[in-house]
Amino acid sequence: MALTREAASTPRVGGPSRRPHGKRPPRRTADARAGYAFLAPWLLGFIALTAGPMVASAYLSFTDYHPVRGGDWIGWDNYQRLFDDPRFLDSVEVTLLYAVVGTPIKLAAALGVAMLLNNRRGGQGTYRSAFYAPSLIGASVSIAIVWRAMFNDDGIVDEAGQLFGMSEGGWIGNPDLSLPMMILLAVWQFGAPMVIFLAGLKQIPNELYEAADVDGAGAWRKFTKITLPMLSPVLFFNLVLETIHSFQVFASAFIISGGRGGPANSTLFYTLYLYQRGFGQGQLGYAAAMAWLLVIVVGIITLIFFRTSRYWVFYSGEGR
Amino acid sequence: MKGTVASEGLGRRVRRRRSGRTVLFHVSVVALCVVMLYPGAWLLLSSFRPTNQILGETGLIPDHTTLDNFRTVFEGIGGISFWTFFMNSVYLGVGSVIGICLSCSVTAYGFSRIAFPGRQVFFAIMIGTLLLPFHVVIIPQFIMFNEMGWTDSFVPLLIGKFLAADAFFVFLMVQFMRTVPKELDESARLDGAGHPRIYWSIMLPLMRPVLATASIFAFIWSWNDFLAPLIYLRSPENYPLPLMLRQYADQTSTSDYGAQMAAATLALVPVILFFVLFQRYIVEGVSTQGLRG
User: Fold this and answer.
1) Which of A9, A43, A50 to mutate to test the interface with B (most CBs of B within 10 A)?
2) Among A42, A188, B31, B143, which residue has the fewest nearby CB atoms (within 10 Å)?
3) What is the CATH number of the domain that holds A277?
4) pLDDT per residue as tens digits for the range B97-114
C-alpha cells in the first residue's frame, strides 16, 4: 500500500528536513558529503548494474551481438524481425493470456478467501499461514517438479480426471491444457495477495457495516459499496504487482517444459523465449530488443494503471 | 452451552446457530487448506515411495515406504555430492543476507537520515527500479561479467546484493527508519557523534526487527533463485540446489521419479523450516510491506 502511494506521489523522505537556512554551512556540506558517502554503494550499483546496462541493452538491441562473434549495428532490424517471428508472437500471446486470465482469478481467489477469513471465529493466524505457504515455494524448481509429475500422463490429475470420465491424458502434453496448468500454479499462490487483502480488510471501520445494516443493505451491496471502495488502494497495489510479476514467470515454465516452452509453444513464456534466444542461441542483440520491448510494455501498463487509478482507487481521508 | 439459564433461551438459539456456522466455517476452511497443501504433502510422501509407484498415486499414505530415493540423492550426481550443491546454496543465501543487510541499511540511512541535495530525486529513481523488469539488465550484465572473467563464480550472483540493488529492501528499511524518532539522532549529534557512529551504534541495533524480516526474505529468494545461477554458473560443482534439481529433472525425466521427489523435498526443507520458525515475521512482512513470496 505504502509503496503505491509512494510511487504515485512525489516521494518525500524522512519527514521534515532540518535545514539550518545557511546559518551553519559547515554542517550542510558535511551532511552532503556524508549523504553521498552513505549512498555510494547504491549509486555505484545503480550506475554499474542498472542504468549502464539499460543503456547498453538499448544499444545492443540495434546490433546483432553474439558473445563470440561480436556484433554490428543493424538499425531497427531486430525489432522488425520480432514482428515476423511466429515464435515471438506465440510468446506474446501466451504471456498475455497468462497475465490477463491468471491475475484476475488469482486476485479473486485471494479476495474471496481473505473475506472468508476476516471474522472473529478464531484460527485466523494458522489459516493465514497455511494459505500463504504456497506463495513462498510456488516459484521454486521443487514445486515445478511436483507440478510436472502431477499433471503428466498417468499423473494424479489424469487419474482423478478419469474417475470423472475425462480421459484427456496429462495436461503437460496437451497444448490446450498446458497453459491452464500454469495458470493453476499461479492461482495456487494466491496467499501473498490474500495476506495483503486481509490486512486491508482489517482497516475498514466496522461502523460502516453497522450503518449499512441499519439502512438494510444486503451482503452484495455492502460488498460493492463498502468493501470494494475501501479496499481499492490495496486492490490497486496487488493488481500492479501481480501483473508485473506475471510477465516475469520463468523457472516453473522452464522446468515443466524442459526449457522448450512446448507443446506447440503453449508454454513459451516471454522470458523463456528471451532466454532461449539470448542465452541458448547467443543472439544477445535480438534478446536485448525483446527485453526493451518488455520494459516499454510493462511501463505502459503501469502507466495505464496509475492514470486510471484516480477513477477507481479511493483513498479515505484523502487530502492531497 | 449446558449451563445457560432458561431465560436466555433466545440468546442460546442465536449462539447455537452461530456455533453451527462456526463449525461450517472451520470445516470449509480446513477443506480448502487440505487442497492447498496437498501438492506439498504429496511431494513429501512420494519421496518415500518406491520410484515406480509415484506417478498415478493419488492417495497420500504409501503402501511401502523406502529410503532408497534419498539414498540415490545422497549418492550425488555426476560424482558431485548432494552436500556440495547444498552448501553452494547456503553460501549464496548467507552471502545475500550479509550483503543486503549491510548495503541496504547504509543506503536507507542515507535516504532517511541525511539531508543533502538530490536526495528526493535519487529516492524517486530507486523506487522506479522496483518496477523494472530484471531482464532488461541481465544481458549487458552477462556480457560485462563475462568480459571480467567472473562467470562461473558466485560474484555476479552476489555483487548486486552488496550494492543495494534490491530496492525493495532499501524501501523496507526506509519505511522502518521513519518510525524511529529523530530526537534520538539529534541528541547523539549534540554529543558529537557523526553519521557513521549514529548509523552503527544507534540505528543498526534498533533495526533488528526489519533486518530479521529482510534476512528471511533475502535468504529464501536466494535459495529459490533459478535464472541467475542458470545464466552464470557452468561447472556443476558450483551449482546451487535449483540447478541440481534441474539436472535430476532433465536426466531422469522418465526413469527415476523417486530421486526427483526426494531431491525436491530436500531442497524445500530449509525453506519450510524457515517458514515454521519465522512465520510471524514472514506473514507480517507480507501484510505490512507487501513483500512477495
Assistant:
1) A50
2) B31
3) 1.10.3720.10
4) 999 999 999 999 999 999
CA–CA separation, A221 and B203 (whole Å): 48
Span A207-253, pLDDT tens digits: 999 999 999 988 999 999 999 999 999 999 899 989 988 998 999 99
Q: Tell me the residue range of the domain where A244 lies.
A: 82-312
In a domain, A36, yes or no: no
- pTM comes to 0.88
Pairwise CB contact (< 8 Å): B264 & A49: no
Residues 6+ apart with CB under 8 A from A4: A233, A236, A237, A240
**CB-CB under 8 Å, B135 with A248:** yes
Number of domains in chain A: 1
Q: Cα distance from A38 to chain B (closest Cα, Å)?
A: 5
Task: Report the candidate in A45, A49, A24, A41 with the shortest Cα–Cα distance to residue B199.
Answer: A41
Minimal Cβ distance to B122: which of A14, A39, A258: A39
Query: Pick from A109, A257, A99, A269: which is nearest to A171 by CA?
Result: A257
Does the structure's ipTM exceed the value 0.95?
no
The architecture in CATH of the region B77-289 reads Orthogonal Bundle (1.10)
Q: Which chain A residues contact residue B119 at CB under 8 A?
A: 13, 35
Looking at CA atoms only, how far is residue A224 from chain B in angstroms? 23
Q: What is the 3-state secondary structure (H, E, C) of chain A?
A: CHHHHHHHCCCCCCCCCCCCCCCCHHHHHHHHHHHHHHHHHHHHHHHHHHHHHHHHHHHHCCECCECCCECCECCCHHHHHHCCCHHHHHHHHHHHHHHHHHHHHHHHHHHHHHHHHCCCCCCHHHHHHHHHHHHHHCCCHHHHHHHHHHHCCCCHHHHHHHHCCCCCCCCCCCCCCHHHHHHHHHHHCCHHHHHHHHHHHHHCCHHHHHHHHHCCCCHHHHHHHHHHHHHHHHHHHHHHHHHHHHCCCCHHHHHHCCCCCCCCCCCCCHHHHHHHHHHHCCCHHHHHHHHHHHHHHHHHHHHHHHHHHHHHCCCCCCCC
- Scored b (16 or more CB within 10 A) or e, A195-219 reads bbbbbbbeebeeebeeebeeeebee
| CB-based contact, A273 to chain B, within 8 Å | no
The Cβ-side half-sphere exposure at A209, using a 13 Å CA radius, reads 13
* B193 at A interface, C-beta within 8 A: no
d(CA A56, CA B192): 45
